[in-house]
Task: structure prediction
Amino acid sequence: MKRILSIMGFVFAMGSITSLLIIGMDALTFERILANEQALFQSKVLDAFDVPYTTATINEVFIQNVEAIELDVNGETVTVYRDPKTGRISMEISGGGVWGPIIGVLTLEPDFVTIANVAILQQEETPGLGGRITEPAYLAKYIGVVFNPDVVVTKNIPSADNEVDAITGATGTSTRFQIILNDTHAKLFPLLQALEN
Amino acid sequence: MANLADIFITSILSGNIALTLILGMCPLIAISTNVKNAQGMGLAVIFVVTITGIINYPIYLLLQATGTERLSILVFIITIAATVQFLELFIEKVSPRMYNNFGLFLPLITVNCVVLAVSLFFVNRGYNFGQTAAFSFGASIGWALAIILLAAIREKMKNHSSVPRGLAGRGIVFVVLGILSLAFIGFTGLSFF
Amino acid sequence: MNRFWKRLQYTKWFNISKDGIFKENPIVVAVLGICSALAVTNRVENAIAMGLAVMFVVTASSLVVSAIRNFIPSRVRMITYMVIISSFVILVQMFLEAFFPVIAASLGAYLGLIVTNCIVMGRAEAFAVKNPLKYTFFDGVANSLGYMWILIAVAFFREILAFGTLLNFRVMPDTWVNWTVMALAPGGFFVLALIIWGVREWAKYFDVAAE
Result:
C-alpha cells in the first residue's frame, strides 16, 4: 500500500512540475509566436504592395499603409487588404496540398482578375519537387496571369494569358495549388466587384 | 480536400510512412532479420496505430476546446503508452496464441515513432475524423508492408550475396531501403480517382 | 604534453565523450535515431537546428533523470522518461517557434518526434539512470555531438547535390543540374549507407553477427 502511494505521489508531483514548467514557458512565448505569424503575413502583403519596411516597424508600417476591408462570405467574415495608392488587393489563400496545408497570400491588380503577386506562408510539399513552390523564381511566373475565368497550371508551354507553367515532377502540388487559387478567387471576386461599385 | 480512398492509397504507396517519410526506422531495421518476426511486428503496428489514431483525434479536439493544444505531445504519448499496455493485457487474456505471435512486440511500439507521427500528422494536416481513420489505417499498413518486404529481401540476401564487411549487417539495409524507397516513390503518378 | 595526453586518456569523462562521438556513435554503431537523421537532412541548416534541439533534449532529460534516479519507482520508469522528455520537447518547440519561426516551420512535425527519438530514451535508460550528474552531462553532450556530426555530414552531401547550395549559398556552378532524388528519401538512405560504410571501415567496427 505504501509503495503504491509513493508511486502515485511521485507521478502526481512530476505531473504538476512539468505542467507548471510548460504553462510558464507558454506564457513567455505565446505573444511572440502570434507576433511572428502576424509579421510573416504582413511582410508578404507589404512586399506585394512595394512598401518598404523593417522588421522592427512592420506593424506600424502595415497599419499606416494598408487598408483592411472585411467581406461577408455567406456569413463568414473574410478580411482582405487594400493598398490605397495602387488599389491592389491582397488576400489569404489556403487549402490542402499533397502532404499538408498550403497557405499563402494572393495579390490582385485593381481589376481583380490579374495576379500582381503570389507568396507562400506555409507548405509541406515534397522537398526538391513540390517544395519548389516557395522559390521566388517559380512564383514570379504567376505575375501578370489573368483569372479568365480560371487560372490553368499547364504542363505545356503557357500560350494563353491564364496559363502558368507547372512544376516539373510535381503534378499533385501544381493541380492542388491551381484549385486553391481558383477557389479563393471564385469566392471573393463577386464581393470585390460589389465593393468597387 | 482529398477524399478518403485517396488518402488511404497514398499513405500506403507513394506516401509510405516508412519509405518516403522515413519514420519508424529503429524497429524497421532491428526486427527485419526474418519474415516471421516482421509479420508479428507489422500486425502489432497496424493494431496500435489505427486504435491510437482514432482515440487521439477526439482527445485533440478536447485539448483544442480547452486551449491546451501545447500539451498535445505529452497527452498523445500517455494515451499511446496506456493503449499499448491495455492491448498487451487484453490480448494475453483473450488469445494466448495471438499473444505469442505479436504480443511480444507490443511494448516496443511505445517508442516506435510511427505511432506518435500519425497523431502529429493529422494535427498538422488538419484532417477530420474520417480522414484520420483512413490515414492511420493506411499508414500502418504501409509500414507493415515495408517491414515485411525488407525482411524478405534480407532473408534472401543472407544466403546469396557477399556484402563488403563495412556495410554488412545494418549498413546494407540502408541501400536496400533506398532502392525500395525509389520504387515506392514511383507510385506518385498513380491516381485512381 | 605527452604525459598530459596519456593521463587524459584514462579519465572517465574523456572516455565517455569518445564513446559517444566516435566509438559508440549512436547512428553509425548503434543505428539509433535514424528517422530524424534522414528526414530533416536535406538542408544543412535543418540538420544543425535538429542537432541542437536533440542535444538540448538529451542533455536536459538525462540530467533530470540522473538527478531523480533514486526516487523513480522502477514500475513507472518508462512513463517517467516519456513525460520528462516530452516536456523538454514541448519547451524546445515553443522556443523555436518564438525565436526562430523559419526553422520551426521547416522541421515541422519532426520536431515533436524527438520524443520518440531512440537516442533520448536510450541514454536515459542505459546511462543516466545509473550514473551521477557530472558523467551524465558528458554522456548526453557527447552522444548528441556524435548524432549531430553525422546529421551535418549527411546534409552536407544532400544539400550540395540536391540544391547546389550550402547553407543556402550557391556553391555549384550555374550549369549544375540538381539531383532531385537527393532531396527525397532514397538520397538520404544512400548517403547514410555510404557514411556508415566509411566510418565503420575507418573505425574498424563491423557487425560481428554479419548476416
